[in-house]
């Protein structure tokens, strides 16, 4: 039983770590995409002022920027969730959230009481 529990904890921590690493890479890519979409929107606005672009082009570029920002924020939230999963898998979640736990949850005292 303990070996299976240990394996599940290690597997959970590994999956959470890999998810965080992957999401970090995606977030960096999405940041670049937001910057490019912002530059495109700005360029289209300027070209619209010069009558080189249509209003539809400007609105499309604004919509692309909105969607890209939404995806970026979604990746940030996913990454934060993966960080919480890592903290949970390593037993540090409650401490990182500054949650006071009751003394009855102290497993070290439970094991020392049982060995006496």
Description:
It is a single chain. This protein is mainly α and 116 residues long. The protein has helices at residues 2-49, 55-89, 93-96, 107-115. 8% of the residues are buried.
Summarize the SSE layout with pairings.
Blueprint: H1 2-49, H2 55-89, H3 93-96, H4 107-115
Sum this structure up briefly.
83% of the residues lie in helices and 0% in strands. The chain is an all-alpha fold and 116 residues long.
β-strand amount:
under 5%
The ordered H/E elements are: HHHH
Low-confidence stretches: none
Q: So what's the overall shape?
A: elongated
* Continuous helix count: 4
Distance between the termini: 23 Å
Overall pLDDT level: 87
- What is the rounded Rg? 24 Å
Tell me the total number of β-strands. Answer: 0
Largest sheet: none
Structural class comes to mainly alpha
Helical fraction equals over 70%
């Amino acid at each position: 039983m303990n070996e299976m529990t240990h394996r599940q904890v290690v597997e959970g921590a590994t999956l959470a770590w890999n998810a965080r690493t992957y999401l970090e890479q995606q977030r960096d890519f999405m940041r670049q995409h937001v910057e490019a979409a912002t530059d495109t929107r700005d360029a289209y606005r300027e070209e619209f002022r010069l009558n080189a672009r249509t209003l539809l082009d400007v609105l499309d570029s604004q919509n692309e920027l909105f969607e890209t920002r939404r995806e970026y924020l979604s990746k940030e939230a996913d990454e934060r969730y993966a960080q919480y999963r890592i903290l949970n898998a390593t037993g540090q979640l409650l401490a990182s959230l500054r949650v006071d736990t009751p003394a009855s949850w102290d497993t070290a005292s439970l094991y020392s009481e049982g060995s006496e």
